[in-house]
Fold:
Amino acid sequence: MAVIETKTLTYTYPGGAKPSIRDVSIKIEKGEFVLITGPSGCGKTTLCRCFNGLIPHFYQGELKGEITVAGLNVVEHPTHELATHVGLVFQNPENQLFALSVEKDVAFGLENLGVPRDEMHKRVDWALKLTGIYDLRERAPHELSGGQQQRAAIASVLAMQPEVIVLDEPTSFLDPLGAKKIFEVIYELNRNTGITIVLVEHRLDLTAKYADHIIIMDDGKVVLDGESREILSSEEARLIGVGIPKATRLYQILQKDGIKLGNAVPLSSDEMAALLREVLKA
Ligand SMILES: Nc1ncnc2c1ncn2[C@@H]1O[C@H](COP(=O)(O)OP(=O)(O)O)[C@@H](O)[C@H]1O
Ligand SMILES: [Mg+2]
Structure:
C-alpha cells in the first residue's frame, strides 16, 4: 500500500519564474526506506514541504497535480491533521527546538494534540530512549551538540508516532561519524518499528546501503526512481552527478576491466569488504 503518492505534482513558489518541482509522480510504499537525492536546488526540500502540507497550506503559489499522504488528500486536510501521519525533520534542528528542556520539546506536539498525561509521558520516554538521549531529557536544547539536537528533533517527531518520517538532509552540519550514528538510529527505527522513512541526503556513501528505493531528482523532475542497486549502478545516475558510493564505482571500474566480484553491486565499503573477503577465500 502506498503511504505517499503523487501524480504529476507541479509547484511554483509565489512570483517564481518556473516550477520548482515538475510532473513528479512517485509512490512510496508503507515500511520502505526511501532515499531522495539530486543536485542542490533540484527541488528536494520543496517536495518534502508537499509531504506534510506546508505546501500549499503555508506556502502559497501554484500547486497542480495530486498528492495523497496516508490516504489523505494533502490539499484538503490541514497541516495539524497531516502532522499526526507524517513528521518532518528539517535540515537545521535549531529551528525545530524551542522549549526549555529536551523533554518539553518532545512533549510539545503531544500536548497540542491533547494526548492524556500518562500516555504522553510513556511516548516521550519511549522516543527519548529510542534516540539515545533519555539522559539528556532535562537539558536545554541549545546546550546540546549538533548531533544531540538532531536526535532531539527526531525524538519530537517520533513521539507523535507518525506513519512516515521525512528527514531533509538531517546531518548536513555533522561530521561523518556523527552523521553515521544518526543514520543508524533512523535505520534501526525503520527495521524495528516498520515506520516509513523518506531521507533526503547527498552522502550516499553512508546511506545507500540502507535504502530499498532511491529517487533521483534533477532540475525539479524525477529522473530515476527504483531499486537502489539498480539505480546506483546505472550509467544515468553517474552522468547526473549524484555521489555514487565509492564502493559501487570501484566495482564498476573493475567489471569494465573484466574483473567481476560477485553478482550484487556493493553500496558501501562494508559491502565491498565482504565481497573481497569472499574472493580471497576462494
Ligand atoms: N521559499 C522559497 N521561495 C521561492 N523559491 C524557493 C523557495 N525555496 C526554494 N525555492 C527555489 O526552488 C528551487 C528548489 O529548491 P529546493 O527545493 O530548496 O532544492 P533542494 O532542496 O534540492 O536544494 C530552487 O530554485 C530554489 O531557489
Ligand atoms: Mg534542500
In short: Residues 98-159 form one domain. The mean pLDDT is 92.
